[in-house]
Amino acid sequence: MNKITRILSIVVTCLVVGYFSGIITRSAITTWYPTLNKPSFNPPNWIFAPVWSMLYIMIGIAAGLVWDRIDFEKEIVKKALLIFAVQLALNALWSYLFFGLKNPMLAGLEIVILWLMIYETYIQFAKINKISGYLFIPYLLWVSFATVLNGSIWWLNR
Q: Helix H segments across the chain?
């Protein structure tokens, strides 16, 4: 498999995860989410889909670039991609906990674990490919913001 195919396959995988997360989110955005008290810094709902789409593309490219190094650093790359897969699963789980179960507290606890896994993925990716590390920084920053937002929503609605 060549570099472009690897990158595209992981980008598509990330976008599919995002799509299924969106399915879980969609109904709650129009029914449950509007009833919550939100902090003043809560972004408008329309911003989330384009931001997440861009982030999924960026992290997919990052993972594809790492995967492309598998012939040279097999064990390190396998470990990094395993961590990547775990954080991607945790990313999807957050949507289910917050919007599916409508449980900001549980989602808040989970997003801290997600953030740690994203940070670990960033560390592992940066060792293998600097560009991959850089591509993870916006994701790390956005989830940092999402963590504060999640905590604030929980606090305002407890």
A: 3-30, 48-67, 74-95, 104-128, 130-156
